[in-house]
Amino acid sequence: MTPSSPPTDEGPVWARDAARKAARRNEPSFKRLIVNLIAVAAVAAVVAFFAAPVVGFFGIRAAAEAGDVAGLARLIDYDAVRASLRPQLSGRPEPLTPPPSFIQDPIGAVRRQFDQAVTPGAADAPDVEAYLSPPALSSLTRGEGRAAIEPPTSADAKWPTPIYWSVNRTRLAVTNDGGARTIFTFERRGPYEWKLVHVGLPDENPSRP
Question: What gap in Å lies between CA 44 and CA 116, rounded to an integer?
Answer without folding.
Answer: 50
